[in-house]
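This entry is retained here.
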Amino acid sequence: MSPERLRRLLESLRRGEVTTEEVVDRVKAMSFEDVGFAKIDHHRRIRNGYPEVVYGEGKTPEQVAEIFSRLARENANVLCTRASRPTADAVRERVPEARYHELCRLVEVRREPGQAVGGVAVAAAGTSDLPVAEEAAISLEVFGSRVERLYDVGVAGIHRLFAHADVLRRVNCVVAVAGMEGALPSVIAGLVDVPVIAVPTSVGYGASFGGITALLAMLNSCASGISVVNIDNGFGAAYQADMINKLVTRGGRKESPS
C-alpha cells in the first residue's frame, strides 16, 4: 500500500464511509501477505518509499505471476527483474497491462508515470553492456527519475564520452556500466561533481572472470566519489541513483531540461 492509499483510507474513515473495523483489517493486510511460498511485503513503500520488487530468477513463472499480481493490486507501479519470456507471459496472463523488456529481462507495470524529476545519466561502455544499463535506465524511469542514456561511450574511443560532457555536467548522479577492465567509472568520476555509481558487468574474455576484474578495478579506483554495486546489478544502481537524485531535487538542485 502506498502512503496515498493510506491517506485516502483514513479520509474515508473520517467521512464515515468505512468502519473502524474495516480500517483495522486493511492496516493488518498492509504488513505482509503470506501466500505459502512467499511473504509479500505490502508495507515496504510506506517504510522505504519504494514497493517491493520481484527478483525473477530462481522462481517459477507461476510464483512470480502470483507475487506480481498481488503487488499490482496495491501499487500503481511494479517491477520484476531477471524475468524469462515464460515468466513474463505468466505475469501478463494475470496482469495484461504488464510490459516486458526482453533486452534487460524486466517486467513492469507503470500506471502512474508522473512527472520525471531531476536527472540521472546512465552511461554504458559498450553495446554488450546494454542489458545491464537498460535494467538501470528503465528502473529509474519507473521510479520517477529523468534519464539520459549515454551508450557505447567506453574508453576504447573516449572521444565518444567527451561528446556528451554537457549531459554529464547537468545531471545529479551518473550510473556507469562497464565490463572488460571496468575503466569507465573512473574516467567519469574525474570529470563530474556528482556521485558516480559503478556497475561491473560480466562482459569480457577469460581473464575478466565473469566480471570480477571489472569489480576489483572499480573498487580500486583512484577517482573519488565512486560507489560500486554487485556484478550486473543494474537495478541496485538504479535504486541508489534514484534516492540520490530525489534527495538533490528536493533540495533545489538543477533539473535537466525536458
Observations:
- Residues 234-250 form the longest helix (17 residues).
- The chain has a mean pLDDT of 89.
